[in-house]
Amino acid sequence: MKSFMRRRFVSNHYHKDLRRKLQCLTQGSMSVQNYYEEMKLAMTRANVKEGHKVTMTRFIGGLKKEIADEVELQHYMEIEDLLHKVIQVERQLNSKSSSKFTSSSSSSWRSNWKNNKVATNPKEDVKAKYSNAPSKGVGNIASQCPNKRAMVTRDNGEIESESSSDDEIPPLEDRSDVEAAEPVLLAYNLTKVVTWSNVNIIFILGTT
Predict the structure, then answer these.
(1) Where is the stretch described as Disordered (predicted)?
(2) Residue 76 class from Cβ within 10 Å (0-12 exposed, 13-18 middle, 19+ buried)?
(3) Which of these, 59, 57, 56, 50, lies nearest to 27 by C-alpha position?
(4) Sign of the alpha-carbon torsion through 70, 72, 74, 76
(5) Could you report the per-residue pLDDT of 70-86, keeping only the tens digit for each?
(6) Angle in degrees, CA 77, 42, 22, rounded to 5
(7) C or N terminus of the chain, fewer CB within 10 Å?
């Protein structure tokens, strides 16, 4: 009855299609187990009945080349025995591939780490060095320099260097008791130039 219904309602093209798919079936990206199940299903749909040797030949022909090459060296009698050996070969190849990938990744990581490693000298400290002109020292700010000097400009145009502690105006002499032939204008003009942090600030300290 099934054969009659199949011949009546299923076209010949459909059967040809199923057989063609079975002939072209390969493992591809599938696992061995999934490939075997797909092959058995395709054989059932195409109503293919064949001997065990033919089925085993078909099965091996669709395997990946590296697996098929290993299986051909094995001894097997039945399709179930063949399937078991093929699964073992697949596991071994996957294990080797995984080990190679791990080793390659580790080597690549170490190589990149060595290339990117910055060579540093622990004895050298990174310091900000400040150089001030008066003391020619390193690491001092001009305003904190112990050898700070002030430049003084006199009336006659002479420039003298004095200690930073001499901030007071020199005392003025009282010459009111000295007679002069003619009015004399006494003028005290002292211009002090202070160097602080590389900035020249001019102070007019006093004028009489």
Answers:
(1) 94-143
(2) middle
(3) 59
(4) positive
(5) 998 888 889 999 999 99
(6) 85
(7) N
